[in-house]
Write a structure and sequence with these properties.
Elements (H helix, E strand, L loop, with lengths): L3 H16 L7 H12 L21 H14 L8 H6 L4 H9 L3 H7 L3
Helix pairs in contact: 1-2, 1-3, 2-3
């Protein structure tokens, strides 16, 4: 049986990958967006991280592992840049097919990458 907290975190990471396409390319960006959305107490009123509050949130490595499963095994929310996809060992044909079929509003964002 899976831990319900892990399922919840997995769903949260997937939501960040869906809603923030640039987070698909960079694990630190993914983690920061994750913290901002789901652990806002981690930041002060000026957007600075409060180090002591990081203990309340999952570590970056945890969100990175979940991202890798979503992208590499499930082939969802692939990186928006080929250079990143290549470094992560994603097949170029799979990546190009995925990008070609991406939603129009995401394609617009991809052109800015």
């Amino acid at each position: 049986m899976q831990d319900p907290d892990k399922i919840k975190i997995r769903d949260q990471v997937e939501a960040i990958l869906r809603d923030f396409p640039l987070a698909r390319n960079n694990d630190t960006r993914l983690w920061i967006n994750f913290l901002k959305r789901y652990y806002p107490r981690t930041f002060d009123g000026f957007g600075n991280i409060i180090p002591d509050r990081l203990f309340e949130a999952p570590r970056e490595g945890h969100t990175t592992r979940i991202r890798a499963i979503i992208q590499n095994k499930e082939k969802k929310y692939l990186p928006t840049k080929w250079e990143v996809a290549e470094k992560r060992g994603i097949n170029e044909i799979d990546w190009r097919t995925y990008i070609k079929n991406e939603k129009p509003e995401i394609k617009d964002q991809l052109s800015l990458c």
